[in-house]
Each structure stands twice: as structure tokens, then as C-alpha cells.
Amino acid sequence: MKIPLTGGCQCGKLRYEISETPRLVYCCHCTSCQKITASAFSISAVVTEEAFHLNVGQPHVVYRTADSGRMYARWVCPDCGTCITGAPRIGRGVSLGTGRLIGRYIVVATDSAYLDAQQAAMDQATSRSSTIRDSAG
Q: Whole-model pTM?
């Protein structure tokens, strides 16, 4: 995987760069992620706040209540509505949806969150190493 990685929204009005290898790649099974992705889970990569750089555009902040009851903020494109990240929280890093990365990557998640909301047919994550790598090898 070549660093930096770039990503953004569907229409291109928000673009970002990450300047380090993700610290963690995980599947989130919470009902919010299921609704946002129209899937059984989302796959996200966590980087430090210092490694995340919003290069183009200004996101709209949308507030929601998480399954845990905690309020959280998501950054979405004001034009196309794509959610690019949960708003950075100091000391917690930035969690980016891996589907918003530009390029083709093989993503291996090694952790899961909110398994109590997991769809019945989903298997739990295995103990492989977290990684994102170029699909070409």
C-alpha cells in the first residue's frame, strides 16, 4: 500500500488524504452503519487526527444518537450526501469508511464493533492482521 491514500465523496467536492497506515481496520455492525451503507455492516479504517487532512471542500456536520446512546457527528458532503467520516474526536482518531478511498484496495478487517446488532448470517471477524493493500498486489 502506497501512502498517502486519498479519498472523498461521490461527487468529488470533498477530498482528503491520509498520511499513515491505518492503526485499525474494523467492521461496524451498528444499526446506523447498516442504514448508511444499506448493508449488514460498514468497514472503516482508523488513523490519528494528525494523519487525516481534508484537502478540498467543507463538510456538513450531521448529529445522530449512536446505538450506545452517545451523540456523534458525521461529516457529509453538502451536495451528494456521502458520509466521509465520523467527526474527529480528540485522542480517538478518525474513522474513515474504506469504500471512500480512491483506487482499488483489498481491505482485511480484524475487529468488529456492535456485534449485538450483527445480522444473523454474518460471521465474526477472524484474528488476521488489519491491512489495506493495492488490489494489484
A: 0.70
